[in-house]
Amino acid sequence: MTADGDAGRRPGWLLDEVANAGRENLDRDHVARYDVKENARASDEVRLCQRLGLTRDSVVVEFGPGTGQFTLAVAPACTRVIAVDVSPAMLAALRSNLAHARLSNVLVVQAGFLTYEHDGPPADLVYSRYALHHLPDFWKAIALSRLASMLRPGGVLRLWDVVYSFDPPTPVSGWRPGAPVPTPVPMPVPATRTGGTGRTWRNTSAMSTRPSPGCWSR
């Protein structure tokens, strides 16, 4: 099943997620080689989600499914998957893979973090892997708020993405040679590593819509 998102009605002030998707993710040749280069560890991720409460009655919303590695793995384990992506090339590959797998419980939607409008029961699981980093930081915050609004109370957000850890004065001095380096404001720094990392949050809000950021526990 497929559906068009509302990207065509995107207001001018809203970030163009297609333009920010990365040229490689819009290139059909790159997409054709994607599964050879990228292993999403989909089976492991499905087992983790099942330990967190995923059942055959669950509704899953996936952002940035790409060619569908996780989509194809999770679909037999739940009642419905809504796969949301902005890349026409990725969506074409996803639809082809779904047809080959003969899965009928996946709805493919051409939209993004900022334009997808969830319809129907709240999601039990929202999943995203290596997609959120394409948004600038301001829009990441908007996206995370929108993801929270889609989850039922007790629902789970599983997020994989790129994390970079560095000393801020170092890149600042490189960007502006000869400029004085500002004194950074002391802040607690979480232990991070360069590369990909996965985090899981559970919606502990009593409300099914627009939970406040303080209602998230990890």
From TrEMBL:
InterPro entries: Methyltransf_25, SAM-dependent_MTases_sf. Residues 60-155 form the Methyltransferase domain. Pfam families: Methyltransf_25 (PF13649). Residues 175-218 are annotated as: Disordered. Residues 190-204 have a biased composition (Low complexity). The keyword Methyltransferase applies. GO terms for biological process: methylation. Keywords: Methyltransferase, Transferase. One of its GO terms (molecular function) is methyltransferase activity. SUPFAM superfamilies: S-adenosyl-L-methionine-dependent methyltransferases. Residues 179-189 have a biased composition (Pro residues). The keyword Ribonucleoprotein does not apply. PANTHER family: TRANS-ACONITATE 2-METHYLTRANSFERASE, TRANS-ACONITATE 2-METHYLTRANSFERASE-RELATED. This is Methyltransferase domain-containing protein.
